[in-house]
Amino acid sequence: MSVCRKRCRRQLTKVGRYFYRLLTGTLAEDSIEDDFELSTVCYRPEGLEKLLEQTKFTKKELQILYRGFKNECPSGVVNEETFKLIYSQFFPQGDSSTYAHFLFDAFDTQKNGSVSFEDFVAGLSIILRGSINDRLNWAFNLYDLNKDGCITKEEMTDIMKSIYDMMGKCTYPSMKETAPSEHVENFFQKMDRNKDGVVTIDEFIESCQKDENIMQSMQLFDNVI
Amino acid sequence: MAAGVAAWLPFARAAAIGWMPVANLPMPVAPTEKNKRQDELIVLNVSGRRFQTWRNTLDRYPDTLLGSSEKEFFYDEETKEYFFDRDPDVFRSILNFYRTGKLHYPRYECISSYDEELAFFGIIPEIIGDCCYEEYKDRKRENAERLMDDQEDNKDSKLPNMTFRETMWRAFENPHTSTMALVFYYVTGFFIAVSVITNVVETVPCGSSPNQKDVPCGERYTVAFFCMDTACVMIFTVEYLLRLFAAPSRYRFMRSVMSIIDVVAILPYYIGLVMTNNEDVSGAFVTLRVFRVFRIFKFSRHSQGLRILGYTLKSCASELGFLLFSLTMAIIIFATVMFYAEKGSTSSKFTSIPASFWYTIVTMTTLGYGDMVPKTIAGKIFGSICSLSGVLVIALPVPVIVSNFSRIYHQNQRADKRRAQKVQKARLARIRISKTGTSNAFLHSKRNGLLNEALDLTGSTEDERHHNKTTSLLESQHHHLLHCLEKTTNHEFVDEHLYEQNCLEGALQNYTSRSPSLSSSGGLTGTCCSRRSRRKSAHLPNSAMSPGPPHGLQELSAVHIHRSDRPPLSTSRSSLNLMPDEAMRLNCKSGQITTAIISIPTPPGTTPEGDGHGPPSPSVQTTAGSSVVKVSAL
Q: What pTM was estimated for this model as a whole?
């Protein structure tokens, strides 16, 4: 009997509270605001020494990189939106969001939807201070969208389209619809040795090493920072 | 480029690794840092208060004083710091702009001192963040008004060299400027009053002759009133014509409200003069006399308050409209209800719904004349509801109108709203221009870079060199990045303008071009062919076409064509631009003659034709191992 009474009282208080809220007009739940407080937590990277060990940058370079990183992302991590926004500042004429998305996936090694400073610096270390093979590996990783070890024509077409999108509309000669796919054909002719329709990592590295233009352009990254 | 992300430029350049393996063409050379400075702290001493920041922070905005080499003028060798003899409080906001990318306007600061500091440090005020921009603009407007008021007091002194017409116009608009204007002002005012009083007195019954009923004065003293009327109308006509003559923009004057009132005031008289004898239209003539009362509106030139009232009514048009609409709705509803309620009672005045309108209006506005009264009980109930709701409906919009009037009367900002709109447009335009500045900067520097290349190769050391502004390292790195993208995709960035022109002319060309020889030169003339407008200041040479066989020689002059071994699109950009230009022009000028005249032994590439268009271009050797072939222009 007492259980029944307790339940009745609980129901009554609930009904009473509902009518009170109805009359006074508070329709929104107040608890939602509490949730927002928790999400502005800060993420701190590991210590400078640890990063020095993991990457090939000097202390000063790491400091400069971190200051720039923290300035743009005070919370310590970059999410995809911010990433796309930052990248689009450099390409005012075209649409760089797709390519930025691929880049984000390549940097986000832990696949948790955000790029922390460690991920950022690790990626940069390979590109800017790694050996040519490392760089080629990284580029392959970028192209291989589903990370299965080989680049299919579809993956390459996606990447190519994203690069062409960055050019925008106002180009000379004007952008044809077939330009990306022609370029992909070209690429596969060059890279796909055994003509099996996919490019594996070995084929990729081998073909790149044979191409003088590519080897030369890889050297460009030596003095970016 | 938003300098807040300048720190991410190395990342963007690193991300270009994705383009390298797919590019078919070699990448351009990267710009080198001439004096590679490590990031260091610099000290800015502003009137004794020392601010310290990284050098990179200041470098983010290279077109300001602190970001450019202009700050070297303020460098003090002994103390190794930059000294500025300016206000340190305002400098805080300015330095924060470099740090955060957002410029804030502190409210306690005087607007003119803030503006001066911004001008000194080379920062445009348009980039003030949205949080502070409204405040900034309001203060600026107040300040400008204050200055204007001061100026207007000074403006009353006579300006030299004003034409007679301008003097007259000023006299009309500001009666206080000269005594003649004042006299004119009072005379017209007097005559307006006289005219209005005449109209009124005309209808008053004057003393009557014993055997007749009361006769209005107008009919008794017809001649006197007619003379008075004529005199007033003559004065008004003269005034109107003088104003029309003196107005700076006659069309605008004629469209203004005051001039329309003037015209309406004097027209009935003239119309009356014309048709006095016609009996049929005398009724219409009488109606026209009603319009004479509009002369009273001419007083609004003399009274500021009247003008403001008129402006208020105009600006509260929506509230007035709402009032009218809601009243109409209520009237119709209640009239219908009252009609049906009173239908039963005998000898009721509510004979139809429109007849009930009168009752409803009188009741809702709480006038209650009492000429129509409901007799049934239902009628009385609905009648009381009607009067109660009338009070509500009318009471609601009226305070809005009243508050509007008081606001406008106190502020009197008739023209400010128009000015504010123009300023907002200007601000957005300036921000848009600075944003497109980045893409334009790249295109600019491309042309400059080419110019330099070409001039280097010709060995010319003229003044054209100095057109190339030294871009900051950041900018040159950014441009190098965009250049790499161009090479990867084998397309170039182009101005929007030119792109549209190209597409238009390309579409046109598809119809007129019939030259088979040209079409054989591959996909070069395929798409947008006309690059007529894309003429560089230095006449760079025409390009090579397909890497095909050399073209035949002809007599006459002036078109040098390069034959390059590389694929066409990789030659100097200039060549690309001018080649289709040539081709296009050839097409236009003589479509059908091309094949016949050019007797080229080898299969025809381009058929350079057309008259001597433009000055002969200087030949420039762009690539080693390309042969220069002369082909004539017919």
A: 0.47
